[in-house]
Amino acid sequence: MLNFAVSRIMRAFLTITICVTSVFVILRLAGDPSDILLPDDTLPEIKAEYRERWGIDRPMPEQYLRFLVAVTRGDLGVSFADGRAATIVVAEAIPNTLLLAGAALALALMIGIPLGIFAALKHNSALDRIVMSIAVLGFSIPTFFLGILLILLFALTLRWLPSSGTETWWHLVMPTLTLAAGLLGKVARFMRTAMLEVLGQSFVRTARAKGVPRLPVLLRHVFPNAAVPLLMFLGIETGLLFAGAAVTETIFAWPGVGRLLVSSAGSRDLPVIQAAILFVACVIIVCNLAVDIIHALIDPRIDTLGAKAQA
Amino acid sequence: MSLNRRLFVGGAVSAPFVVTTPHAFAQTDRRPTLTVAVAELPKVLEPAMELNNVGTRVTYSVFDTVIRRDFKSQPDGGGSKLVPHLALSWEQESPRSLVVKFRNDVKFHNGDEMTSDDVAYTFREGRLWGEKAEIPGGRPFFGTLEAVEAIDKHTVRFRTRAPDVLMEQRLASWCSWIVNKRHYEQVGIDGFGKNPVGTGPYRFTRMRANEFMEFEAFDAYWMGRPTARRVTFREVPELSTRIAGLVSGEFDLITNVPPDQIQVMSSYRDVEARSVVLANSHLLTFDARGPMTSDKRIRQALAVSIDRKKLVDALWLGKATIPPSHNYPEYGQMFLEGRSLPFNPERARALLREAGYKGEPITYRTMPNYYTGALDAAQIIVEMWKAVGIDARLQVVENFAQMRAPGQQVGNNSNSTRFPDPLGAIWPSWGPASDFQTSKAFAEADAAPFNAAGRLLLGETDQAKRKALFAQMLDAYEDACPGTILYQPLETYGVKKKVNWTPYSFFFMDLRADNLSFS
What we know:
The structure holds two protein chains of two kinds.
Chain A lengths: L1 H28 L3 H5 L6 H11 L5 H13 L13 H36 L4 H15 L2 H15 L12 H30 L2 H8 L4 H30 L2 H6 L5 H11 L2 H29 L13
Helix pairs in contact in A: 1-13, 5-6, 5-8, 5-13, 6-8, 7-8, 8-10, 9-10, 10-13, 12-13
Chain B lengths: L4 H22 L6 E6 L14 H7 L7 E4 L10 E4 L2 E8 L2 E6 L13 H7 L2 H5 L9 H4 L2 E8 L2 E6 L6 H5 L9 H14 L7 E7 L3 E6 L12 E6 L3 H10 L4 E2 L7 H5 L4 E7 L2 E7 L9 H9 L3 H9 L28 H11 L5 E6 L7 H14 L3 E6 L3 H5 L5 E7 L9 H5 L4 H4 L5 H16 L3 H18 L2 E5 L2 E7 L2 E3 L14 E3 L1
Parallel strand pairs in B: 1-10, 1-11, 14-15
Antiparallel strand pairs in B: 2-3, 4-5, 5-7, 6-7, 8-9, 9-10, 11-18, 12-18, 13-16, 13-17, 19-20
Helix pairs in contact in B: 10-12, 17-18
């Protein structure tokens, strides 16, 4: 088990390194931050001074080496825009993203799983089709469009909910609905498929033939087996949920990491972009790593010693 | 006690009242609050660090300048008359020395009296104009300073290295906000940026990065009690969210409304669009290093074959302004009457013939969204050029580096009027220290007559001679034609009709009592 965990952690570390390096190179090829951050008729000597201050006047390999050395000390540089440590700028936004993504994840699971189970139990009925249509609508409708629709309905027409900000719990409602809609639909569909697959297994038939009532069969035999692939699926989707909140956060002026990433990319605030990408990469990798390890723990078919998986 | 449905519903209904009751009791000030939704908030509130549209619309309410530009001296909000502000009076002691007498009734937000020590501290070498100044962006404004000396508690002498006729303009610019010395020394530049102390009508209370900045009325303000109890600037990057929030009543004022949304605004009963033409011009640049644009006749042909009125009508609902070149009415006595930016296709064809132009391609690079409407304008201009026989090839690029990479012949840019004088506008934008000249896009030989007139203007104090030198500069610029102005764009705000507030031709948002009231 230890070897398994170590190999996964090493792989995660390699992934982060590749990700951060790619971002570092691409950002520096994508234009000079002084052109964006300073007024467009700033004198060249003033621009040169800022470029020197930000360290982007040096050759790229030197910048990269300095960056790597600094990263080992936990220093991701200072924001070009306000001179604060990039880690602090990103850390300030993390709680908002965790709150929004956490709420969306909880909502998606609380509604998506029961819907999926219900649809599987009513397989091929009208109710199944209705539930699945709602699920397809949920993940087909673009986040941006849904967000604007909700604002038009709840903020502009009904005036029930605030359109932007984080002041109260009411501010959380529309961003959560917007962000959860896609995942909810996917969870419902995935749960339904997984349930149907397990329901058709011989051990379920056997249990029913032995006279075990329907509910215990579902709770003790079907759901735990259907939950394993769902867990794998959620590992990837949770990471994407945290990373993909950028659009929702921008629409609802929710000051999370996604919006910080968008605004920093717009202003070419390289240290902040790097720190934000590092956070997002870490979230995705940690989620996947956690799922890998949990999967290995709960599924006896996964051989953590490297032997071939049992059939 | 168990929680049943009735108890839960009762609790939920009463919760908002319980939560807000302390505020209701504490609330004795009956002045309204003002919430402004902006596309972006400044990162810091050190006023000289944020010399841009995003920063100055906030800092204008927190700080005061030494002298004030009275935008309201013209009905369109573009007045340029200089009036006393923190300064009671000023006197040119010698060509290189300006003595300024300050008011003695000005308090900072922390209760300190404003004295000449604060002024000298604000304009110190290490902050604004020295070789290693903390804020390099201060040098274009105050690089001429040699010393700033406190004469007595309320009198300060500004000494320059050479005669500087623009010192009053500089002291009215967005780089001359007075900061509190004691607080600045206590917290340093970074701390000050997060917790500023000025003398303006609103006192900083709190901020949350990328979310909001909140200010309360500073009732000891020397110009009188502010009309809003509290002002909050809220960052809402998405335009449709800003508009929805304005209509639903969450916001009283929103910024950055594009021209195509002006009609949308007017369709709502209690909301309206208020626009002002900015002291900023969008323009095209012609790179003298390009194979075709190295010939000034071709550059001139490019300039005279643009029908600017059509552009303004099509893209700006006819509301943007076409200035008479780099020559704006706000220059006052320096404004040159009788000039224009001509549209003359016949002249363009003649110039092209003279230059031997045979339809060789001319590369026109533009960024799609950096300047509002730039791509639409480019597509129209290419057609206008085609009509006179110019084969312009449009390339859409992502950033300035790509735009200025070898091969560019035409690009886009904007020029701001830092202060209303040619030396505060065309000279820093196109003079010897500008990017255009250092990069040779404005070739040395072409620029020589322009530079010669500009250098003379720098040292000239006689008004009539200054104006003549400006005319020479502008003639030289138009003859060399390193670029041409398209128009001055429109800045539009969405405002609740109950809010009586006038936008200015600069990015400042004036929320002082004489420009903000509520119906």
